[in-house]
Amino acid sequence: MAASEGPPAAPRRPGAAAENPWPFRLAVGAAVAVLGFVFPPFRIVSLTPGTADPAGNAAAAAPAGFDPVAVAAKFWAADLPAAHPRAVDLAQLAPALRADAEAAKKRFAQAAGLGTAYYFVRGSGRVVARERNVLRLAVTGAETEFVTIRLGPVFGNTVRDGSGLLDVNAFPGLQEFNALAAALNTLVEQRVLPALKENAQVGKVVTFVGCAEAPESAPDSGEPLFTVVPVQAEVR
């Protein structure tokens, strides 16, 4: 008689191995976490260029070897003041612009190639209104016309290009030329605007030299002809 092989094994129920899946799930989760730490699916990067100056300093934005602050200071102290006498008289420009803005632009404005045209203008006006960032002046000699004087902040290339004295081809590249524009804007904010903000109250007369973008057409009657960024100003 054959030896007894013991009681038959109980039949295996389907899915018996999955009755307690948690140890298996915890092991898989731990493995995924380790892989995610070693090989992250994304990384966080700064959208700010590494060469940018958090204070907005023009010198930091310029390539090494070019000092826009020094170049701007020299231009501000020598070349720009020497050009003040040849700036167009606002009392002459105002009626010409009102009569034919395009003809006035061709006669009095300057532009680099096909770029924006600017007026380099001198004149005076009585302060008739003051807002946070601009003064509104009634033009001396043409009292029915108005301009606004910018009190800041100053952006763009109006000061750099407005006098017509600076040529991009005289600089190493466009980056340096733009850094020079920022440095000149800073000089306006530091050396011209503080006294204007403090002293130019309604009723005062402001005498100035400055740069303004030439409008494409004459504005409506009673509206300012343009906005001047002053490079020199006196209040009396």
Structural class: alpha+beta
Give the low-pLDDT segments.
1-7, 13-18, 34-57
* Count of helical regions: 8
Write down the secondary-structure element order.
HHHEHHEEEEHHHEE
Secondary structure: number of strands = 7
Largest sheet: 5 strands, mixed, barrel
**Strand residue percentage:** 15-25%
Q: Say what the CATH topology of the domain at 88-235 is.
A: OB fold (Dihydrolipoamide Acetyltransferase, E2P)
End-to-end separation: 133 Å
| Helix content bin | 25-40%
Supply the CATH class of the domain at 88-235.
Answer: Mainly Beta
Q: What's the arrangement of strands in the largest beta sheet? A: 3-4-5-7-6
Q: What number is the mean pLDDT?
A: 82
CATH evolutionary superfamily of the domain at 88-235: Envelope glycoprotein gp160, DUF2291, alpha/beta domain
- If you compute it from the alpha carbons, what radius of gyration comes out, rounded to the nearest whole angstrom? 35 Å
Known CATH architecture of the domain at 88-235: Beta Barrel
Give the overall shape, derived from the CA principal axes.
Answer: globular
Multimeric status of the protein: single chain
